[in-house]
Amino acid sequence: MQPIETLLNGLLPFVPDCPEPVALHWLRDSAARLCSESGIWKALITLPVKAGQVAVPIAVPAGAAIANIKAVTFNGEPLEPKADVLLDEAHPNWLSGVAGKPFCYGEGASNAITPFPTADGTLTLRCTLKPSMDATELPGSLINDWGSIIQAGALMMLYLQPDKPWSNPSAAGTQASLFEQGVREARHEATHGKQDAPIRTKPHFF
């Protein structure tokens, strides 16, 4: 992890009158948007669970928040995601800790996950993360690989602020284009990996 303030050196020369706390806020916001829209910050999270346990809190690294849950397994077997409202309709007792082999999961509470039914074992979540609103650090890969994109997103928002010494609406479009292109490139890398592996669209049998 590296301090977000590392990115100030490439940002403040373009908005010299901007207070550092304001610049840091928009760097954090830009990084969160990049991560949410691209899925570039990936994580595997394992959670031990007990039979009868519901709304299991999802433990994330300090300064991080869940952007998206891509897949969940229980003891290595995949679980199907279900919206809480659908579980309410199909299984009204799903939050009662019903024992059995889990086959699906819902949330049940904010920043939590509830397998249904419940059993002793291990949940493994394949997630994408984003910086929380109080984050002070980012993964080194985000800063090293996507720092200029994060700066572009922050500059876009700073330039769009009205009646500030650093306001520059005419330059915001250029920064917006740079940020959007960066999101596309980050999304491609998140999907294909750095090795740019192809995605199979037809079944292959070995």
Explain how this protein is built.
This protein has 206 residues and is an alpha+beta fold. The chain has helices spanning 20-38, 84-90, 140-160, 169-192; strands at residues 2-3, 42-49, 56-57, 64-74, 77-78, 80-81, 104-106, 112-116, 121-131, 137-138. The protein is elongated. It starts with a strand and ends in a 14-residue tail after the last helix. Mean pLDDT is 92; it is low at 199-206.
Instruction: Specify the structural class.
Output: alpha+beta
Multimeric state = single chain
What shape does the CA trace take? elongated
Tally of separate helices? 4
Mean pLDDT across every amino acid position? 92
Number of strands: 10
Helix content: 25-40%
Beginning-to-end CA distance, first to last residue = 40 Å
Strand count, sense and barrel status of the largest sheet are: 4 strands, antiparallel
- Enumerate the strands of the largest sheet in spatial order, edge to edge or round the barrel: 2-9-4-5
Radius of gyration equals: 21 Å
Which regions have little confidence, pLDDT < 50, spanning 5+ residues? 199-206
β-strand amount? 15-25%
N to C succession of SSEs: EHEEEEEHEEEEHH
